[in-house]
UniProtKB/TrEMBL annotation:
Biased composition (Basic and acidic residues): 169-184
4-aspartylphosphate, modified sites: 79
Pfam families with a match to the protein in the record: Response_reg (PF00072)
Protein name per its UniProtKB record: Two-component response regulator ORR9-like
Source species, domain of life: Eukaryota
Keyword Cell division: no
Species per Swiss-Prot/TrEMBL record: Senna tora
Keyword line: Phosphoprotein, Transcription, Transcription regulation, Two-component regulatory system
Length: 184
Protein backbone atom coordinates (compact mmCIF):
# COMPACT_ATOMS: atom_id res chain seq x y z
CA UNK A 1 0.00 0.00 0.00
CA UNK A 2 1.09 3.55 -0.71
CA UNK A 3 1.66 5.75 2.29
CA UNK A 4 -0.80 8.63 2.54
CA UNK A 5 0.53 12.11 3.14
CA UNK A 6 -1.56 13.69 5.83
CA UNK A 7 -1.80 17.42 6.31
CA UNK A 8 -0.25 18.38 9.64
CA UNK A 9 -1.60 21.49 11.35
CA UNK A 10 1.03 23.92 12.60
CA UNK A 11 0.44 25.50 16.01
CA UNK A 12 2.37 28.46 17.39
CA UNK A 13 2.58 28.14 21.20
CA UNK A 14 3.43 31.31 23.14
CA UNK A 15 4.23 31.19 26.86
CA UNK A 16 6.90 32.84 28.98
CA UNK A 17 7.01 29.84 31.36
CA UNK A 18 9.39 27.14 30.14
CA UNK A 19 7.49 24.41 32.01
CA UNK A 20 4.10 25.46 30.61
CA UNK A 21 5.60 25.83 27.12
CA UNK A 22 7.06 22.31 27.29
CA UNK A 23 3.73 20.90 28.55
CA UNK A 24 1.64 22.48 25.79
CA UNK A 25 4.25 21.47 23.20
CA UNK A 26 4.15 17.85 24.37
CA UNK A 27 0.32 17.76 24.40
CA UNK A 28 0.14 19.24 20.91
CA UNK A 29 2.77 16.88 19.48
CA UNK A 30 0.94 13.91 21.06
CA UNK A 31 -2.08 15.02 19.02
CA UNK A 32 0.03 15.07 15.82
CA UNK A 33 0.40 18.83 15.54
CA UNK A 34 3.55 20.49 14.30
CA UNK A 35 4.57 22.95 17.02
CA UNK A 36 6.71 26.06 17.16
CA UNK A 37 7.11 27.43 20.70
CA UNK A 38 8.27 30.93 21.60
CA UNK A 39 8.52 32.73 24.94
CA UNK A 40 7.01 36.14 24.14
CA UNK A 41 4.34 37.92 22.13
CA UNK A 42 6.92 39.97 20.25
CA UNK A 43 8.75 36.80 19.13
CA UNK A 44 5.41 35.38 17.98
CA UNK A 45 4.74 38.49 15.89
CA UNK A 46 8.22 38.29 14.39
CA UNK A 47 7.69 34.64 13.48
CA UNK A 48 4.37 35.60 11.86
CA UNK A 49 6.20 38.18 9.76
CA UNK A 50 5.16 41.27 11.71
CA UNK A 51 7.46 43.81 13.29
CA UNK A 52 6.37 46.60 15.56
CA UNK A 53 7.01 49.82 13.76
CA UNK A 54 8.46 51.88 16.59
CA UNK A 55 8.21 55.10 14.63
CA UNK A 56 4.42 54.81 14.46
CA UNK A 57 1.96 54.20 17.27
CA UNK A 58 2.01 50.91 19.19
CA UNK A 59 -0.98 49.45 17.31
CA UNK A 60 0.69 49.73 13.91
CA UNK A 61 2.69 46.90 12.44
CA UNK A 62 4.55 46.49 9.19
CA UNK A 63 5.40 43.38 7.26
CA UNK A 64 9.00 42.44 7.86
CA UNK A 65 10.67 42.02 4.50
CA UNK A 66 13.59 40.07 5.92
CA UNK A 67 11.43 37.66 7.94
CA UNK A 68 10.09 34.77 5.93
CA UNK A 69 7.70 32.28 7.41
CA UNK A 70 8.57 28.85 6.01
CA UNK A 71 5.57 27.10 7.50
CA UNK A 72 2.08 28.49 7.64
CA UNK A 73 0.69 28.79 11.17
CA UNK A 74 -2.82 27.35 11.48
CA UNK A 75 -3.50 28.19 15.15
CA UNK A 76 -1.96 30.29 17.92
CA UNK A 77 -2.21 29.29 21.57
CA UNK A 78 -0.92 31.88 23.99
CA UNK A 79 -0.64 32.49 27.70
CA UNK A 80 -2.66 35.47 28.91
CA UNK A 81 -0.22 36.84 31.47
CA UNK A 82 3.29 37.44 30.09
CA UNK A 83 5.79 40.26 30.68
CA UNK A 84 5.92 42.88 27.97
CA UNK A 85 3.16 41.97 25.55
CA UNK A 86 0.34 39.98 27.17
CA UNK A 87 -1.55 37.26 25.36
CA UNK A 88 -4.51 39.63 25.22
CA UNK A 89 -2.34 42.27 23.50
CA UNK A 90 -1.11 39.64 21.04
CA UNK A 91 -4.70 38.61 20.31
CA UNK A 92 -5.74 42.21 19.62
CA UNK A 93 -2.78 42.83 17.32
CA UNK A 94 -3.42 39.63 15.34
CA UNK A 95 -7.15 40.26 14.97
CA UNK A 96 -6.56 43.87 13.83
CA UNK A 97 -4.02 42.78 11.20
CA UNK A 98 -4.54 43.81 7.59
CA UNK A 99 -4.12 41.35 4.72
CA UNK A 100 -0.45 40.43 4.39
CA UNK A 101 -0.55 37.98 1.53
CA UNK A 102 -2.94 37.62 -1.39
CA UNK A 103 -5.98 36.28 0.46
CA UNK A 104 -4.53 34.99 3.71
CA UNK A 105 -4.77 37.24 6.71
CA UNK A 106 -3.50 36.72 10.23
CA UNK A 107 -6.88 37.76 11.60
CA UNK A 108 -8.28 34.49 10.21
CA UNK A 109 -5.90 32.36 12.30
CA UNK A 110 -7.73 30.94 15.33
CA UNK A 111 -6.27 32.16 18.64
CA UNK A 112 -6.66 30.32 21.95
CA UNK A 113 -5.81 31.98 25.26
CA UNK A 114 -4.54 30.06 28.33
CA UNK A 115 -4.43 31.27 31.92
CA UNK A 116 -3.98 29.86 35.40
CA UNK A 117 -6.43 32.46 36.72
CA UNK A 118 -10.17 31.86 36.32
CA UNK A 119 -11.34 35.46 35.96
CA UNK A 120 -14.73 35.61 34.14
CA UNK A 121 -14.29 39.23 32.99
CA UNK A 122 -10.88 38.36 31.49
CA UNK A 123 -12.30 35.28 29.75
CA UNK A 124 -15.24 37.27 28.29
CA UNK A 125 -12.97 40.09 27.15
CA UNK A 126 -10.72 37.63 25.25
CA UNK A 127 -13.68 35.86 23.64
CA UNK A 128 -15.23 39.20 22.62
CA UNK A 129 -11.91 40.27 21.08
CA UNK A 130 -11.88 37.15 18.86
CA UNK A 131 -10.33 34.28 20.82
CA UNK A 132 -11.77 30.90 19.83
CA UNK A 133 -11.29 29.31 23.26
CA UNK A 134 -10.02 30.14 26.73
CA UNK A 135 -8.29 27.26 28.54
CA UNK A 136 -7.48 27.15 32.23
CA UNK A 137 -4.00 25.91 33.11
CA UNK A 138 -2.75 23.34 33.43
CA UNK A 139 -3.88 22.59 29.88
CA UNK A 140 -4.95 18.98 29.46
CA UNK A 141 -5.31 16.59 26.54
CA UNK A 142 -9.09 17.11 26.57
CA UNK A 143 -8.47 20.84 25.97
CA UNK A 144 -6.14 20.11 23.05
CA UNK A 145 -8.83 17.86 21.55
CA UNK A 146 -11.11 20.93 21.34
CA UNK A 147 -8.71 22.57 18.88
CA UNK A 148 -9.41 20.34 15.84
CA UNK A 149 -12.84 21.83 14.98
CA UNK A 150 -11.37 25.35 14.96
CA UNK A 151 -8.51 24.21 12.74
CA UNK A 152 -10.82 22.40 10.35
CA UNK A 153 -13.18 25.39 10.16
CA UNK A 154 -10.20 27.64 9.42
CA UNK A 155 -8.88 25.24 6.76
CA UNK A 156 -12.29 25.05 5.02
CA UNK A 157 -12.58 28.87 5.04
CA UNK A 158 -9.07 29.15 3.59
CA UNK A 159 -9.88 26.68 0.81
CA UNK A 160 -13.15 28.48 0.01
CA UNK A 161 -11.36 31.84 -0.13
CA UNK A 162 -8.73 30.34 -2.43
CA UNK A 163 -11.43 28.86 -4.69
CA UNK A 164 -13.25 32.21 -4.88
CA UNK A 165 -10.01 34.08 -5.66
CA UNK A 166 -9.08 31.59 -8.39
CA UNK A 167 -12.55 31.88 -9.89
CA UNK A 168 -12.35 35.68 -9.70
CA UNK A 169 -8.95 35.64 -11.46
CA UNK A 170 -10.38 33.42 -14.18
CA UNK A 171 -13.30 35.79 -14.69
CA UNK A 172 -10.98 38.80 -14.85
CA UNK A 173 -8.92 37.12 -17.55
CA UNK A 174 -11.96 36.35 -19.70
CA UNK A 175 -13.49 39.79 -19.13
CA UNK A 176 -10.34 41.77 -19.85
CA UNK A 177 -10.71 44.47 -22.53
CA UNK A 178 -7.97 42.95 -24.68
CA UNK A 179 -9.94 39.73 -25.12
CA UNK A 180 -13.42 41.23 -25.55
CA UNK A 181 -12.57 44.10 -27.89
CA UNK A 182 -12.97 43.44 -31.57
CA UNK A 183 -9.66 43.59 -33.40
CA UNK A 184 -9.52 45.88 -36.40
Amino acid sequence: MAAETQFQFHVLAVDDSLIDRMLIERLLKTSSFQVTAVDSGSKALKLLGLNEDEQRNADTFSVASDTHQDVEVNLIITDYCMPGMTGYDLLKKIKKDIDLQESKSLKDIPVVIMSSENVPSRINRCLEEGAEEFFLKPVQQSDVNKLKPHLLKSKVKEENDQFINNKRKGMEETDSPDKTRAKI
